[in-house]
Amino acid sequence: MSVSLPPLLSPLLVNKAVRAALEEDLGRAGDITSQATIRPAAVAEAVLASRQEGVIAGMPLVKAAFQAMDAGIDVTGGVADGDACAPGQMLARIAGNARALLSAERVALNFLMHLSGIATLTALYVDRIADTGAKVCCTRKTLPGLRALEKYAVRCGGGANHRFGLDDAVLIKDNHIAIAGGVREAIAAARAFCGHLVKIEVEVDTLAQFEAALAAGPDAILLDNMTTQELREAVARNGAGIALEASGNVDLATIRAIAETGVDYISTSKITMAAPALDVSLDIAIT
Predict the structure, then answer these.
(1) What is the 3-state secondary structure (H, E, C) of the chain?
(2) Which residues are tagged catalytic?
(3) Is 4 among the domain residues?
């Protein structure tokens, strides 16, 4: 039996993202409010808590943000990325230099709220089709500069990643087909160009195009904006066992019916582009 290991974020990626966010927020003069109101040696302890039910993603960035301001800040908590949280649940305790703590607060919360929102919405989609065998996938529709983090959050919510960029897999879309001269021609050109480890997927929006794609033998076929009846027909015709992906008109109301057609993957941009932030608070513990 295969074991599903938890997703991991590269420390290099975490540090790069945190540094850029802190530089944006601190500007040239730093946190002038904390400098004006708090003694340099003051220490404080804060509680990070969730205000609503959800799935956590982004805790490595939280820790990195606080410790980038002061390596001595201690971040301890009872949750890890991928864990479910309840309203009022403590996610972490942060203790150390008060100025540093407050200077990193917004960056830490922004990452945690945004990524946890993606993980939470993804988990809803995954749960909706849990017994069908289909997998929920994200797309390249992500915020510029945050793609790897957002795709990580999708995995924390139980979803799967589509290609990360234009360079790690071939996805032949309608405009490529129009310029290349047809579905078969585009797939043949991709086969001639790519190495043997590069996957080739082609997007089709009619059953006639689907038949042409089947004959050309790509690794996967994306069925774009097809009705559930058309999706079932495509699954029935897929004697070669090519991976089939459905996309278009996917939301929480439609994904179950799409999954029940027998497709292997369902991709949607909503889990990254339309996910509301998870409401999280950070409050100083007064003793």
Answers:
(1) CCCCCCCCCCHHHHHHHHHHHHHHHHCCCCCHHHHHHCCCCCEEEEEEEECCCEECCCHHHHHHHHHHHCCCCEEECCCCCCCEECCCCEEEEEEEEHHHHHHHHHHHHHHHHHHHHHHHHHHHHHHHCCCCCCEEECCCCCCCCCHHHHHHHHHHCCCECCCCCCCCCEEECHHHHHHHCCHHHHHHHHHHHCCCCCCEEEEECCHHHHHHHHHHCCCEEEEECCCHHHHHHHHHHCCCCCEEEEECCCCCCCHHHHHCCCCCEEECCHHHHCCCCCCEEEEECCC
(2) 106, 141, 173, 203, 224
(3) no
